[in-house]
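Forgive a beginner's question, but might I ask you for the amino acids of a protein and the tokens describing how it folds?
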Amino acid sequence: MSAAQWRRAMNRTAALPVRPRTAVPMPLAAPPAPDPYADSDAPRWLKFLWRSLSARHVFLGAALLIFPFAATPFFTFQVASQALILGIVALSLSFLAGYGGMVSLAQMTVAGIAGYAVAVLGTSSSPEISLGWPWWITVPAAVLIAVAGSTLIGWLSVRTEGIYTIMITLAIGVAFYYLVLQNYSVFNGFQGLRELKAPTFWGIAWRDPLPFYFLSLVCALGSYFLVRYIVRAPFGIVLQGIRDNPRRMASLGYHVVAHRVAAYALSGVIAGVGGVLLAWYNAMMTPGSVGTGWLINLLVIAVLGGVKHPIGAFLGALVFVLLQTFAIDVIDRERFNLVIGGVFLAIVLFSPDGLLGLWAKLRSRFGPQQTLTSPQRRQP
């Protein structure tokens, strides 16, 4: 192209009319609620609690408080309490998998360690095995033993990734199952330890349906807000960075193995609390409580609700318990695994993020959306 042709082409381009810019539609954002603790010296956890609460949290909390007074003892104890307990144990798995990128199949094993510790250290149907310690010593000791077991499991498995981590934790869970099945001097073999009674204090029998429901609810809320707080704390942010790119985080000076083992220890606290409640709920601990089936069921519960959402563990546990309780009225009891497997496959195929991910997709597609097309349309 000659210089004259280039100048003519540039002149034609400059003569083209300039099209006016159109404003990109912007979603209307609701004004943030005033924060009464923004400029105060309130504790950090209180500021976090205020900023985490929303209208749906208040509505859900009110519904959970009213539910046991409107439902029958069967629904309060067999359905709601069991769903809360399984949700607590599944939350420990969701924390590891969703925020740490570590899928562990040994979380029910950690809960079983806590449950067996309650049976051995406390009172049971086998006085020659149980030590008879009071509950206010037995429960903290059981949780500490569960934390130690979870830390050991993490130390053995965090140096691997992907399918290797899953296989190591599965092997540990199966090994613990055969340990309690074949050991009679400590775990009483296949018969297990029975008559594990929840304590009675403040004049309240905590094994009764209503008190036990509120005990499970308090522990579930504490575990939920603990995870929500941790994932926003510096430790949780570093853990998520390790999940996304461990090599880069190691190059920045963070100890990847130490953070992963610490995450296992924290999950052990949550699973240990769930294991204590599980022992009191069943009033016994047997090898069937920590069998291979429950190791897989816990993963199903976490995936059903949504691994990346803390509340998803409780939603998945509720769906699992409802299917387990009422599916036998429609089909044969032995076909339950087929039903839960079909539901699991449907959720994974249509929404990899679980039921909460499916709800988010439906809400974004069919929910009302308000947009602004230009700044002049904004009301003063």
Observations:
- The chain has one domain: 72-365.
- Residues 26-30, 370-380 have pLDDT under 50 and may be disordered.
- The first strand starts at residue 26 and ends at 27.
- The two ends are 55 Å apart (CA to CA).
